[in-house]
Specification:
The protein has 447 residues and is α+β, with helices and mostly antiparallel strands. Helix content is 34%, strand content 26%.
């Protein structure tokens, strides 16, 4: 049984983990940089430890400092949240070497899924369909060009060791392939310290569909349905829904069980998300995230499952509290990512929050670490809040979302609330008629 958890993160996810720990009667330790000394997760935790100056590499990404904070505070487990060190297999291994529990999968599984090519090969072997592309990395421009010619344009060039849209470029014709290839390699090297890239067939109008799984150390694995994350900007998700409007209940059940069985065969435990592109009635696996997702709340509110709680218990050696037959889907949910960004330019906005008012009422949930007078520093990801709404069907959900967005007040900084309000009134969004390129196509129309 885990007794004390060090939360190796900040912002809304640190608060979310802290609340799950409190519900389980587990003591909490918050880490923070000097810029986050007055942050909400620091104020709410039982203890806190400063791990360095504002720059992430000197604080939240400083592995010796984070592990030292766990040791001096007497924590017996570390929860990495998402981002930062959450998918760093070296960190996971070092946590276990120090006799601590890493609240996540084994380091080997993190490393396996962190290599996108290895992940695709693994799930191909386990029977999941993948996007057509190269069998491995392509390090020679001549071979890469020949392969692209054979695949047909457009072609997607992707970083083998990364994600989040970094190190990803589209070559729409032979004439721009070389520049796209070199740019992708350069960006991948800078972002991930690994410039290996591979090729995938570029799908013209896919949706981004992902399945949530939870597994324990006894071989039990269940899926909690899918989320549609197609509304994206520069491959960064902006809006997520559960369930998707394109999968039938029969397909969801059969494919979800197929995913759970594949993950179970790996001996994987903890939470995980398998991401797919959906086009012409087919799902194609692209990657697996071995951590809690930003968008996990939409799954929680339609299934009644506390995913973070299950994640903590599984890491501590407990069996899952639910079986596949226990999983029921109730209504529809949408999450809007409220970033501290200008809705016209998407330029990040730092400053002091004033006149903060959180929306409420039936079906409304807000995950955030904001409070009136708190400071939003310029050093970290711009996500500051998540607005989640649930209703009996999608149209009622959109109505609830419009109401909640209209109530939400965050003065002192720019946010994406105006963008989300405009999206809720766009006819294609209302009709559910969009794909991953939607915001690129209609951006000027929306704004």
């Amino acid at each position: 049984m885990i007794k004390k958890v060090l939360i190796a993160n900040r912002g809304e996810i640190a608060v979310r983990i802290l609340r799950a720990c409190k519900d389980l009667g587990i003591q909490t330790v918050a880490i923070h940089s000097t810029a986050d000394a007055d942050a909400m997760h620091v104020r709410l935790a039982d203890e806190s430890v400063c791990v360095g100056p504002p720059q992430p590499r000197e604080s939240y990404l400083n592995i010796p400092s984070v592990i030292s904070a766990a040791c001096v505070s007497g924590a017996d487990a570390i929860h990495p949240g998402y981002g930062f060190l959450s998918e760093n297999s070296t960190f996971s291994h070092m946590v276990e070497e120090h006799g601590l529990i890493f609240i996540g999968p084994k380091a080997d599984h993190i490393a396996m899924m962190g290599d996108k090519i290895m992940a695709k090969k693994t799930f191909t072997r386990l029977g999941l369909p993948v996007v057509p592309g190269s069998d491995g990395t392509v390090s020679n421009i001549t071979k890469a060009l020949k392969m692209a010619d054979e695949m047909g344009y457009p072609v997607l060039i992707k970083a083998a060791g990364g994600g989040g849209g970094r190190g990803m470029k589209i070559a729409r014709s032979r004439s721009d392939f070389t520049e796209a290839y070199e740019t992708a390699r350069r960006e991948a090297g800078i972002a991930f310290g690994n410039d290996r890239v591979y090729l995938e067939k570029y799908l013209a109008a896919p949706r981004h569909i992902e399945f949530q799984i939870i597994a324990d150390k006894f071989g039990n694995c269940v899926h909690l349905g899918e989320r549609d994350c197609s509304l994206q900007r520069r491959n960064q998700k902006v809006w997520e829904e559960a369930l998707s409007t394109v999968l039938t209940p029969e397909f969801r059940n059969s494919f979800g069980r197929k995913i759970a069985a594949a993950v179970g065969k790996l001996g994987y435990f903890g939470v995980g998300t398998l991401e797919f592109l959906y086009e012409n009635g087919e799902l194609y696996f692209i990657e697996m995230n071995t951590r809690i997702q930003v968008e996990h709340p939409v799954t929680e509110v339609i299934t009644g499952t506390d995913i973070v709680r299950e994640q903590i218990l599984a890491a501590g050696g407990d069996k899952l509290s639910i079986s596949q037959d226990d999983v029921q889907f109730n209504g529809h949910a949408i999450e809007c990512r409220i970033n501290a960004e200008n809705s016209d330019t998407f330029i990040p906005s730092a400053g002091t929050v004033v006149n903060y008012h959180c929306p409420g009422g039936p079906g409304v949930r807000v995950d955030s670490a904001l409070y009136d007078g708190c400071k939003v520093p310029p050093y970290y990801d711009s996500l500051i809040a998540k607005l989640i709404v649930r209703a009996n069907d999608r149209q009622q959900c959109l109505a609830c979302l419009r109401r909640a967005l209209g109530e939400y007040v965050i003065d002192g900084i720019d946010t994406l609330i105006p963008l989300h309000l405009k999206l809720t009134d766009h006819p294609d969004v209302i009709a559910g008629n969009f794909d991953i390129h939607f915001l690129e196509r209609i951006y000027e129309t929306v704004l």
